[in-house]
């Protein structure tokens, strides 16, 4: 004679078939339940428990609970030639708005620079003033290249 045991508490079950499992027991994949565990499972609202767990999970998702991070503003241009660099950078940004972000390659060629140097300027990296002045001259910015080179950082 084969013995059966409750899948939850391990109590020995009598012979014969059990009643159809409750929705909660079916949801958990339980087949053999003693009368006590089956009674408890029948009292549970399985759908409400699953819905509550899903809502808790959705609340923990970072995109659901927190706004997207705001990118930090680019660093300010500082140093001896900051005003001149800012004037040139403003002209570069206007050029990109007018011609699109892919226009940096053409502008770099016009200025006689590597495209990476121009990108460095846009990202406000440390680029020699001579390169800034070449871009200013290519864009027709007044005063670009008209200063003496001794002011280079």
Describe the structure.
The protein is mainly α. It has eight helices and two strands; from the N terminus they run ββαααααααα. Strands 1-2 form a two-stranded antiparallel sheet. Helix 5 (82-99) packs across helix 8, helix 6 packs across helix 7 and helix 6 (104-111) crosses helix 8. The longest helix is centred in the middle third of the chain and has 18 residues, at 82-99. The protein is rod-shaped, with a radius of gyration of 36 Å. It starts with a strand and ends in a 14-residue tail after the last helix. The model is unreliable at 147-153 (pLDDT under 50).
Please give the radius of gyration in angstroms. Answer: 36 Å
Q: Termini distance?
A: 94 Å
Whole-number mean pLDDT: 80
β-sheet strand percentage: under 5%
For the secondary structure, the number of strands is 2
How would a crystallographer describe the biggest sheet?
A: 2 strands, antiparallel
* pLDDT < 50 runs, ≥5 residues: 147-153
The SS-based structural class is: mainly alpha
Total helix count? 8
Helix content: 40-55%
Strand order within the widest sheet? 1-2
H/E element order: EEHHHHHHHH
């Amino acid at each position: 004679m084969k013995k059966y045991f409750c899948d939850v508490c391990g109590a020995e079950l009598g012979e014969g078939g059990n009643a159809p499992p409750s929705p909660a027991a079916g949801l958990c994949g339980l087949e053999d339940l003693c009368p006590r565990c089956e009674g408890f499972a029948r009292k549970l609202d399985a759908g409400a428990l699953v819905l509550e767990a899903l809502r808790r999970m959705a609340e923990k998702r970072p995109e659901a609970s927190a706004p997207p991070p705001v990118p930090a503003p680019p660093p300010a241009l500082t140093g001896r030639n900051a005003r001149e660099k800012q004037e040139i950078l403003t002209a570069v940004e206007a050029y990109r708005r007018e011609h699109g972000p892919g226009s940096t390659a053409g502008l770099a060629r016009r200025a006689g620079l590597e495209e990476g140097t121009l990108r460095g300027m846009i990202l406000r990296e440390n680029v020699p003033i001579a390169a800034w002045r070449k871009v200013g001259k290519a864009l027709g910015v007044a005063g670009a290249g008209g200063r003496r080179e001794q002011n280079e950082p």
